[in-house]
Design a protein that fits this description.
Helix 1 crosses helix 2 and helix 3 packs parallel to helix 4. The chain has eight helices and eight strands. Helix content is about 40%, strand content about 20%.
């Protein structure tokens, strides 16, 4: 459990991409604080999704809503500046990608962007700990990255607790994000373990009323902050 503000971040990957501007307006009106944008290159993960044009479109439509960009790409250091200039507020790069990680995180922060470190389910928290002073958020994948709609992996819950213990012990100013299979049944245990940013795609966008879906997810997750 964490005392940090709870943030709901709908994942645009699950939106109706044929009417993205209308979907962006729907997210903006939903009460969600952030929108999450998955960028995939077909190399780091077996799927291809968005580029900088999607970030620019959402920036234009969504005003000052926080754009949380998740680079699931092989060489994030080559493209970080492009995404920051397109309008990203947060840039999450993978520990497992091919780049000099500490240098990439420094570069992101030097550009005035919030730096996030993402790790896949098999990656141990101990590999992320030395980098915690360089980031503002730690993104723990709760599915194997690449496709939306996957089932949550409960074995990640101990990793959330471990990360939270280190962050509290060292007094780091770092949020914990969970991404993958987040919905009514999984939000509460994630928040109980220490997560405070919930990325949700299918669970939100499959509902006809996105505002009601966001409010319900927030209510379920908030109950964990009260009762654990």
């Amino acid at each position: 459990m964490t005392s940090r503000p709870l943030i709901i971040a709908p994942s645009v990957l699950a939106a109706d991409l044929g009417r993205i501007e209308q979907e962006a307006e729907r997210i903006k009106a939903s009460g969600a604080e952030w929108v999450h944008i998955d960028v995939m290159d077909g190399h780091f993960v077996p799927n291809i999704s968005f580029g900088t044009n999607m970030v620019r479109t959402l920036r234009k439509v969504m005003g000052d809503v926080t754009l949380d960009v998740h680079l699931m790409i092989e060489q994030p250091d080559r493209y970080a500046r492009d995404f920051v200039e397109a309008g990203a507020d947060c840039l999450n790069v993978h520990l497992e990608a091919r780049h000099t990680l500490a240098r990439t995180l420094d570069h992101i922060r030097e550009m005035g962007c919030r730096a996030g470190l993402a790790i896949n389910p098999p990656t141990l928290i101990k590999h992320a700990i030395p980098l915690l002073p360089k980031i503002q958020q730690l993104l723990l994948m709760t599915v194997n990255p690449g496709f939306g709609g996957q089932a949550f992996l409960p074995e990640v819950l101990p990793k959330i607790r471990e990360a939270q213990e280190v962050i509290l012990r060292q007094n780091y100013d770092v949020d914990i994000t969970v991404d993958g299979g987040i919905g009514e049944e999984t939000a509460r245990p994630c928040v109980s373990a220490g997560a405070n940013i919930l990325v949700a795609g299918t669970a939100l966008f499959r509902q006809p009323d996105l505002t009601r879906a966001v409010a319900h997810l927030r209510s379920v997750a908030s109950a964990a902050t009260v009762s654990g």
